[in-house]
Write a structure and sequence with these properties.
By secondary structure, the chain is an alpha/beta fold. Helix content is 47%, strand content 15%. It has 9 helices and 7 strands; from the N terminus they run βαβαβαβαβααβαααβ. The longest helix has 29 residues, at 108-136. The chain binds NADP nicotinamide-adenine-dinucleotide phosphate (NAP).
Length: 251
Amino acid sequence: MAKTKSVPDNEKVAIVTGAARGIGLAIAEELLSKGMTVVAVDLKEDALTEAANKLGNPEKFSTAACDVSDSEGFTAVVDDTAEKFGRLDVLVNNAGITRDNLVMLISDEDWDLVLNVNLKSAFIGSRAAAKVMMRQRCGSIVNMASYSGIEGNPGQANYAASKAGMIGLTKTMAKELAKRGVRSNAIAPGFIQTDMTDILGDAAKEMAMVQIPMKKLGQPSDIAKAVGFLASNDSGYITGQVLSVDGGMHT
Ligand code: NAP
């Protein structure tokens, strides 16, 4: 039988990327509400300070400014967190960007940027976190995929490819790490009301509404609740799954 361990949720240490705003901020709030210690990672120091002021839980919440596509920098954040707190239980690879265009108009730069920020970062963080989690014999990695990564979406070839890649990474890590008590799952949000979707034009928003059976946008808290479940011991026998949180778009 596999030798795995478990730790109470309120003793867990979590890293959440892209946590200064939007879905990542809601995830940080949800994990804090479960009593977890949370390290929020994002690009800009001032945005992180603003998030810290909003959440107001300085005993359990700290921040690290870093570009998650920078291998050395992000690996150091993961290693430092594990060293500082003596463990690492949860990694939420949430940071993501879009550079939308039709496939024949996407530049090499925009392809590489989206793939590096959305997908390579998850590999970098997971590689570093898995080393710690395997030693502990427990841990949960949650990757932020997307409906676009399952179904494809016109104008989002780079983004959809990065999110489909997240799903392949998630499922492979689940199979590699399960014996050591490390779980790996993905969330596939549909249209969630954040800055990322606020920039869509009215026509795109109307198109989105046509596709959503529940006829409303999701909220960051809808995604955060699902991440909270996958990060917690309540989902202890679940790994390698992609959980759609999309108002019924993907069935
Ligand atoms: P958001 O509001 O744009 O927030 C993303 C956060 O990630 C921002 O704080 C951003 O910092 C940060 N970030 C960007 N690049 C980074 C990097 N290289 N290193 C570290 N942090 C970085 O996005 P969101 O809507 O909350 O989306 C969060 C995740 O959910 C993304 O992976 C997205 O693809 C996924 N998702 C969202 C939706 C949706 O409808 N919103 C749907 C499906 C999937 P800056 O502010 O400095 O750029």
